[in-house]
Write a structure and sequence with these properties.
The protein has 350 residues and is mostly helical. It has ten helices and no strands. The chain has helices spanning 6-34, 53-66, 77-103, 113-134, 139-163, 179-201, 224-227, 247-278, 282-307, 312-335. The chain is flat and about 70 Å long.
Length: 350
């Protein structure tokens, strides 16, 4: 086995730090969005011309004290600026990862394309963050910003798996036949995440307050023509805060998100059952258990959002649970794509 250099060791460490930072950025982004603080700072990169959030809060408080309601609430500047601080540190960390990867580019099995792509992605994420504010929470930009954050964390997790050579080989070859089903489940999860982003970007999360689908007569309030307009919304409002779509369009979005949850549940449950039937090793049986647990938690959080009218903590947890399920499925697909040996696992699953 090739001995790791100090720069390779630091690359591993920094990648783990970046994963935690990306997770924090996603949680903070959800907190900002779901607490209606997305326009807490209407300019970018500062907040009312200040990079220090304390000065921004003081500025808003002073203006509103002399001219009540002239600016948004002072407390909404805090989540927006804290989110920007963490996102900036994450961007710097990814640049360090790319630099360390370039230094180690001649080492065996050193990923380089993925770290460089992450640099491009995080720059694009910064632009989406800017456009989210300057374009007044335009729904498509908000959804893309959310998807970009999820993609960043997912790719960082995949990079960590590659850097740590996880897993090195597969000794449970029968699970390789699950690639098509796993890919289908992954595609469904990605689509559901996009639908979730579209739901929250259009403030459609609270439009249906009953289970299992929506209020009585919901089939009469479906409007697909207006529900999925991704650009060129016609409205007279100064921005998109609190949404610009009519109730029927929001109902359609919400209902599609619920049907998407049903599709994801069926596909992921089928995958879990197939894993348990085909897997001989404890490794993959445990993997199936983790996937099942994440699905159940995610469904429970989704129901909790409906029952308790989208409380902030449950909504943020539901948002974060989606990306964890996504990462787990991608790591499972990676695990069944590594080199397969013909050896059968032992009694302890080794």
């Amino acid at each position: 086995m090739q001995t790791l250099t100090s720069s390779q060791i630091w690359l591993r460490r920094v990648t783990i730090v970046a994963i935690f930072l990306a997770a924090g950025v996603i949680a903070l982004g959800a907190w900002t969005r779901l607490s209606d603080a997305g326009l807490g700072c209407p300019d970018w990169p500062g907040c009312y011309g200040h990079l220090d959030v304390r000065k921004a809060v003081a500025h808003v408080a002073d203006v509103n004290s002399t001219d009540p309601g002239a600016l948004r609430e002072a407390h909404k500047t805090i989540p927006e600026m804290v989110h920007r601080y963490f996102a900036s540190v994450l961007g710097l960390t990814i640049l360090i990862i790319a630099a360390l990867s370039w230094i180690n580019r001649k080492r065996a099995k050193q990923p380089l394309k993925l770290p460089l792509f992450l640099v491009v992605l995080v720059i694009f994420q910064g632009l989406l963050g800017m456009w989210t504010v300057t374009m007044g929470l335009q729904p498509t930009i908000v959804m893309l910003h959310l998807l970009g954050g999820f993609t960043t964390l997912t790719l960082l997790s995949l990079l960590a798996a590659r850097l740590y050579r996880w897993p090195e080989f597969l000794n449970d070859c029968d699970v390789r036949t699950l690639k098509p089903l796993a890919g289908l489940a992954l595609a469904a999860v990605i689509l559901q995440i996009a639908l979730g982003g579209w739901t929250t970007a259009n403030y459609a999360a609270v439009v249906c307050t009953e289970l299992p689908v929506c209020e009585s007569g919901w089939t009469e309030h479906l409007n697909f023509a207006d529900a999925f307009i991704f650009w060129g919304h016609e409205h007279d409002l100064p921005d998109y805060e609190f949404g610009v779509l009519e109730n029927d369009a929001r109902t359609t979005i919400h209902v599609m998100h619920r049907f998407g949850a049903l599709l994801v549940s069926l596909l992921v449950l089928t995958l879990v059952v197939r894993i348990l039937r085909r897997a001989h090793s404890t490794f993959f049986r445990n993997f199936a258990g983790v996937i099942l647990l994440l699905l159940l938690v995610q469904v429970g959080l989704g129901i909790g959002n409906v029952v308790f009218s989208v409380p902030l903590r449950i909504a943020v947890a539901h948002n974060f649970g989606a990306v964890v399920l996504l990462i787990t499925l991608i790591l499972f697909i990676r695990a069944i794509n590594v080199k397969c040996t013909s050896a059968r696992p032992g009694p302890n699953g080794e």
